Amino acid sequence: MAVNRLCCCSRRSRYSHVEKMTDLVAVWEVALSDGVHKIEFEHGTTSGKRVVYVDGKEVIRKEWMFKLVGKETFIVGASRTRATINIDAVSGFAYEYTLEINGKSLKKYMENRSKTTNTWILSLGGTDYRVVLEKDTMDVWCNGEKMETAGEFVEDGTETHFSVGDHSCYIKAVSSGKRKEGIIHTLIVDDREIPEAVE
Fold it and tell me: What pTM, to 2 d.p., does this model score?
């Protein structure tokens, strides 16, 4: 007599969806204020299937699309950033896949982002933190969460205060005195300056 056994201890890998991806054609990593997000795209050129994953979670699935070119638009992260994957035919059955973030090519978006944000990566008490300042809004993000801040005018500029755990932090903004350089932002944590990261 055959006995069927059910195992109740099966563990799923965080990336188990990758094992199922037979038509994976593109992977992008996008640094946003709320974190670095991985975008994966499957395109079945015989079935027309389109599947988009953001950070391992399926956000779009379309089966049996007869039009093999087009666009797929979706939202990424807590900052609700709009992303679009463009699918273009280049020759015969070859396709090109490009990612746009907020209506700009990924390259242009990242170039613009380096002008509109500052990013710092630090470790406090064995925990890694990624702090991002959005210069246009003065919003501060830490590990994917928008922080409660308090602005203060000081003698040589401004300070934006916030806390990370039980650590006192602030971002100091002072004029560089040079028109092309503009304002210089510095992160201070527990009275210690943190060097800016390059993303």
Answer: 0.78
